[in-house]
Design goal:
250 residues; alpha/beta; TIM Barrel; 8 strands; binds 2-phosphoglycolic acid
């Protein structure tokens, strides 16, 4: 099973119109073959970002969606609206959403289902906290998040799973490559157990948490790491393009 590698950038609550120059430069590094390149700017920039990416191989995604298709939910954005603005992917269940907005596994699952219903691929994030890591509970936490938040009808086209240890996000800390390898191997086995060998090996597994140009190559050399979800280092072309290049070379 050949899984296409994916370099995904999440701008979080960063970026205004002037930053589209960075996005356009990054788009120039996206090729028809090799890793897929995706940027998820804030919703305010989505349609402009989609315009900037038109005619390039770069894809645009959203950072979150509401589980419902439409309705009385002031300030929220549906998956259909993100698709309409040009998003092909939607991040769901990021730890910042789980923490800041109290999102449970059930909510994350509903969001992943909403993304699929709108024709977008969900990038679903799971990961242990520092306390859970220190207690040696990482695999149990991931087992339960995976069971609770990944929809039963997930496929390689509708779902990407991102392993993001909460303590590694924005901290400059990362697990060792052995630890990342053990987790990705565990997740691959769980996906195969649940979805069977075809779908279980088709779903891409990203690592996320302090991926930088300096550590990208060693992380991408780990078995079953199909790419990365990158926060801070996706904000500039100078940082993100070397990460894309490291993924191409892996
Ligand atoms: P970071 O964020 O690369 O800034 O650590 C990663 C993420 O939250 O996806």
């Amino acid at each position: 099973m050949m899984r296409r590698k994916l370099a995904a950038g999440n701008w979080k609550m960063n970026g205004t119109v002037e930053d589209l120059t960075q996005l356009a430069e990054i788009a120039g590094a996206a090729l028809e073959t090799g890793p897929e390149v995706l940027l998820c700017p804030p919703a305010t920039l989505l349609s402009r970002a989609a315009d900037a990416a038109r005619g390039t191989w770069m894809r645009i995604g959203g950072q979150d969606c509401h589980p419902a298709a439409s309705g009385a939910h002031t300030g929220d954005i549906s998956a259909q609206m993100l698709r309409d603005a040009g998003a092909r992917y939607i991040i769901v269940g990021h730890s910042e959403r789980r923490t800041d907005h109290g999102e449970t596994d059930a909510i994350v699952r509903a969001k992943a289902e909403a993304a699929r219903a709108a024709g977008a691929t969900a990038i679903l994030c799971i990961g242990e906290t520092e306390a859970q890591y220190r207690a040696g509970d990482t695999l149990e936490v991931l087992r339960s998040q995976l069971a609770g938040s990944v929809p039963d009808d997930a496929t390689g086209d509708t779902l990407v799973l991102a392993y993001e240890p909460v303590w590694a996000i924005g901290t400059g800390l990362t697990p060792t490559t052995d630890e990342i390898g053990a987790v990705h191997n565990f997740l691959r086995d769980r996906l195969i157990d649940r979805f069977g060998p075809d779908t279980g090996t088709a779903i891409r597994l990203l690592y996320g948490g302090s991926v930088k140009p300096a550590n990208a190559a060693e992380i991408f050399a780990v078995a079953d790491v199909d790419g990365a979800l990158v926060g801070g280092a996706s904000l500039t072309a100078a940082d993100f393009i070397p990460i894309i290049d490291a993924l191409s070379a892996a």
